[in-house]
Amino acid sequence: MPKRAWTSVLARWGIVLLVSLITLTPVVWVLSLSFKPPQEWLAYPPTLIPRQPTLENYLVLFWPGNPVGVVSEMVRTAEPVTRAFINSLIIVPISTALSIVIGFLAAYGISRFGAGGNFLPFSVLTTRMFPPIAFAVPLLVYYRSLGLIDTHLGLILMYTTFTLAFSLWMIKGFIDGIPRHIEEAAILDGASRWRVMFTITLPLIRGGLAAAALFVFIMNWTEFLFALIFTSRFAVTLPVQVSRYAGAVGRYYGPQAALGIIASIPVLIAGYLIQRYLVRAFTFGLVK
Amino acid sequence: MASIEVRQLYKRYGRITALQGLDFSVKDGEFFCLLGAPGAGKTTTFRIIAGLEKPDRGEVWIGGELMNSIPPQRRDVAMVFEDVALYPHMSAFDNIAHPLRLRRLPEEEIRRRVGEIAELLRISHLLHRLPHTYSGGERRRVAIARAMVRRPRVLLLDQAFTDLDAKIRQEMAAELKRLQRETGQTMIYATHDFEEAVAMADRILVMRDGRGVQVDEPQVLYDRPATAFVASFLGSPGMNLLRCQAIPEPQGTRFVHADFMLLSPVQLGENREVLLGIRPEHLQILMSPAPGSVEAEVEIIQPLGLERIVDLRTGPFVLKAIASIDLPLQLRQRVWLLWPSEHLFVFDATTEERIYPG
Questions:
Q1: Within this chain, do residues B14 and B104 fall inside the same structural domain, yes or no?
Q2: Is residue B231 part of a domain?
Q3: Number of domains into which chain B is organized
Q4: What's residue B168's pLDDT?
Q5: Given this model, what pLDDT does residue B212 score?
């Protein structure tokens, strides 16, 4: 290989390595931390490989105070993570599905029929124009009067509403990318509008929908502010549960890291399952 | 199959007027062509016939039935779009079978009909491939197959061969004509290409600014254009048109503009401003002066195999002539042009309507 080509290959690999390092270091660090005993959490100099690896950080998430150990003693009063995990697994997929379905139908109406004129698509964005905390107090009043505080339904409605702007605009972009003539050809073939939407448009933007769904799923899965304000015990989600591993002496980094690792698993699975659609979404402009 | 009648169609898009009082009728089983420059209203006409657009005014009749309030799904009109519009996620088989599946035909019948039309259009080898793997011509064929497979009453083809290269375009035009003859399908083809229209159509409607200018058989349109626009649009190159003053003389008419002057036996009767027309193939190039000839200078020579298109400057005008390759012509050479009176056309300069021959 000529010298110039070698330099190019080396430079490329160097950049890839650097970017990987920046991206993966926090993940590796959290993974390492989740297996460390308390004395190593803040040890200086820090170590990547735990000197005395332990599973206690993981075990106490599900069985606080059992087995007996230093970490168990720390989190003895905490609720088991099972409830938060189930809550997240109920609230997040449902709100994501609702956001994508409503977003798709709205985006189709706006893209193909100009529904709502210029006003509607932009008015949807108002939910993203203010910091979420600005909505928190008025919503708290409404939610209290409607009995939605600390309920699954309350968070599902909230997450659906606040991610709708993203799903609508993302999906609208994909629908806009499909030539109208393709749908009109199907209409002339004899298909109804609904049929066109489900048999022509939907399969063509499958990748886009998958990308939007993953994006919204991650937003909902990691949402903290509303979950903290609008839940207390029954509908607590994982991000709120993470914040509960703290005591008078400080934060319990080990259990927090372990929960962080566990919480990442559903997102990784979702990403893996829709990986091939994501590639299609990124190459969407190739429809011809 | 069915006849079509379009009556007084009007359509505006905001400030843009697409159609203004378009009228025409297509006979059952006829190959009809809409010929016009881009923006003449061809696609809008198609979209209204197909039911994809509503006209502001006017009526569309198909097979003696008023279509204005009938949805596109129930008009039984098929259309091949300019950009083909194949379903990118379906194979050729599924693309072609799509309209049949919507009609809930038995799968056996669907396979038989798709096979037949694929054979007719020579696309059997594509049936299990996705559209992005086809060539331009193959995509057109699949689109035509999809449109024809359900045997619609009317087939509309919107500039269906536009982006194909000249050779494939000629092949496709011949094939489409053959297909139309074999099936007796009522077809309307929209194009801006005069040669394509002449090659296929039984009759041609020349459109301009959303109106029909003249409708007739291709040869009649060519031989007796009703307006200067039709004369210039039909032909390759189109008719030479010279704006000049027609002054009656005892022996005919003198056509004058600046230092251009032509005396012709054509009788017009009054002094008026006109457009004098002659087709490039009728303009005779002489190497020496002759009675009634006009002096000119060779400006450009474009070789075309056995013939050449020659640009000739005479007075303020540049004329195009088709000359044999045998004629020894060189740039900036002085030549003389003979204007046979039997091939002269005269149009009114204001209305552009033909005055001569009457």
A1: yes
A2: no
A3: 2
A4: 76
A5: 95
Find which of B43, B94, B98 to mutate to test the A interface (most A CBs within 10 Å of its CB): B98
Statement to judge: residues A27 and A117 lie in one domain: no
- Closest partner residue to A191 (CB to CB) among B52, B82, B102 is B102
Chain A touched by B102 (CB under 8 Å): yes
Kindly identify which residue of chain B lies nearest to residue A192, measuring between CA atoms.
B73
- B232: number of Cβ within 10 Å: 18
Q: Return all residues near A268 (Cβ < 8 A) that are at least 6 apart.
A: none
Q: Which residues of A touch B (CB under 8 A)?
A: 179, 181-182, 184-192, 195, 200, 203-204, 286-288
Q: Hunting for tokens 């590796």 — which residue is that?
A: A28
**Cα of A199 to nearest chain B Cα, Å:** 10
Q: Chain B closest CA to A8's CA: distance in Å?
A: 33
Q: Are B72 and A181 an interchain contact pair (Cβ–Cβ within 8 Å)?
A: no
Q: Can you give the CATH number for the domain in which A125 is found?
A: 1.10.3720.10
Mutation for testing the A interface, residue in B87, B100, B101, B113 having most A CBs under 10 Å: B87
Last residue of a domain, one of A11, A41, A56: A56
In this predicted structure, the answer to whether residue A236 has a pLDDT above a threshold of 90 is yes
**Could you give the percent of chain B with pLDDT greater than 90?**
70
Q: Which domain holds residue A231?
A: 81-286
Task: Please tell me the predicted confidence (pLDDT) of residue A67.
Answer: 66
Task: Assess whether B275 and B219 both reside in one domain.
Answer: no
Range of the domain at B287: 240-356
Burial B304-323 (b: 16+ CB within 10 A, else e): eeebbbbbbebbebebbbbb
CB contact under 8 A, A189 and B89: no
Neighbours of A221 (CB within 10 A): 22
Strands B252-257 and B203-208: unpaired
- A264 plus A157 within the same structural domain: yes
Shortest distance between the Cα of A279 and any Cα of chain B, in A, equals 15
Pair (A170, A261) in one structural domain: yes
DSSP E strands in A125-284: the ranges are: 246-247, 250-251
Residues B220 and B248 placed together within one structural domain of the fold: no
Number of domains in chain A: 2
**Residue B230, domain member (yes or no):** no
Judged against a pLDDT cut of 70, whether residue A285 lies above it is answered with no
pLDDT value at residue A286: 46
The CA distance from A248 to A182, in Å, is 64
Other Cβ atoms less than 10 A from the Cβ of A54: the count is 18
Contacts of B85 in chain A (CB under 8 A): 179, 181-182, 184-185
* pLDDT beyond 80 at A280: no
Phi, then psi, of B295 in degrees rounded to 5: -75, 145
- Can you give the CATH number for the domain in which B102 is found? 3.40.50.300
Confidence class for position A68, pLDDT limits 50, 70, 90: low
Measured between beta carbons, the chain A residues lying within 8 angstroms of B132 are 286, 288
